[in-house]
Amino acid sequence: MHPTLMERLAILSDAAKYDASCASSGTEKRDSSREGGLGSTEGAGICHAYAPDGRCISLLKILLTNFCVYDCAYCINRSSSNVQRARFTPEEVVWLTMEFYRRNYIEGLFLSSGIIRSSDHTMEQMVRIARELRTTHGFRGYIHLKTIPEASPALVEEAGLYADRLSINIELPTDAGIAELAPEKRPDGIRRAMAEVRLKIEEASEPTVRTKTRQRFAPAGQSTQMIVGADGANDATILSTSARLYGSFALRRVYYSAFSPIPDASARLPPTKPPLMREHRLYQADWLYRFYGFGIEEITSAQTDGMLDLDVDPKLAWALAHRERFPVDINVAEREMLLRVPGFGVKAVNAILAARRHRRIRLDDLAKLRVSLRKIRPFVIAEDWSPLRLTDRGDLRGLLMPEPVQLSLL
Ligand code: SF4
To answer: 3-state class of 166 per DSSP?
Structure first.
């Protein structure tokens, strides 16, 4: 019997949960209360849902279909997988989005798809959905479209006119990994599509005589996702690939998705999933690279096997391996060095720099910035504090572990 719309919704929203790349940060602000139409990307009154692993999925996150002609070994929707299949029509996706939006269940749509018939046929349907939402229904909520590998540049270009964000999954950190586990995908084609999207975004964002930007094209940029732990790539390889992608294609985000074992999995895949902490550490390392001035080799060089330390965060791991750079005098140190102090975020560093123009900073002042004094004490000198030999203590790592034995550092 043909599954009902609700049954298909259950199947196709469940099938989409493996995709991590659905954050809506960074898009332009639009609000129907000011501009007409329907919806807003500004988020007030939006209901959020959480995936079983804790990720926020406040978008209607679905696949157009979980039928797929490709056979990527790590994917539950691969052609040889024995899962229940379903498919929406474009009209159904438009209707569902509008109805969920009107009920304030979602702030937008995240739409991906298996490949049906051909890449272009699938991409055409996805573009049609975004076009209908924007032009027929005046939908002003957030739209994230996954672009289909090997879809024609003209379709990707049209997608960018309607979507806030476009993304194409790089899937695995090395070309060899893709050849092994997703042989129908072509890494060169994926990178070419990313380059084309970058070019379009840059062209469209150039100002004209009358407007700040030339054209609206994927204002929230492009992102990608890498699966962690399906192949043998270590964290150093994963992060180096991310750095290349950020540099070459101006990606807003690389999302890391810990590989989940799937039913009837290929023997080429590991039998168990990697620890979720590995995914978390990769996000932290990615953050250090993008916002804290760390090089990838600095972050990963603390470990000999190229894997991030699961017990302590990457910034603390670096500081523990480079004690000669500490303690840092917070009343005179450069911004770049303050950013390397474990426990200091960008906000705290900016606040320190602003405050020290007027007075000398004490440890109490740091407490008011809500930084963890336990974490920073071994690494800083303040007006009323010097760590003396604490920085060099052999057991410092143990003292700073997330759940340490209760020892006072004072
Ligand atoms: S193309 Fe996408 S949906 Fe199809 S098998 Fe590969 S990863 Fe899965």
So the answer is: strand
User: What pLDDT was estimated at residue 49?
Assistant: 41
Q: Which residues line ligand 1 (CB under 6 A)?
A: 68, 70, 72, 75, 77-78, 114-115, 182
Q: Which amino acid is at 63?
A: L
The pTM assigned to this predicted structure is 0.86
pLDDT tier at 22, thresholds 50, 70, 90: low
Give per-residue pLDDT as tens, 367-381: 999 899 999 999 999
Tell me how far apart the alpha carbons of residues 183 and 71 are, in angstroms, rounded to a whole number: 8
Residue 143 phi/psi, 5-degree rounding, is -130, 125
Mean pLDDT for 184-190 is 94
Domains of the chain from N-terminus onward: 5-283 (3.20.20.70), 314-400 (no CATH)
* List of residues 6+ apart from 283 with CB closer than 8 A: 256
Q: Ligand 1 centroid to 68 CA: how many Å?
A: 6
3-class SS of residue 121? helix
Ligand 1: nearest atom to the Cα of 77: 8
Quote the longest CA-to-CA distance of the chain.
75
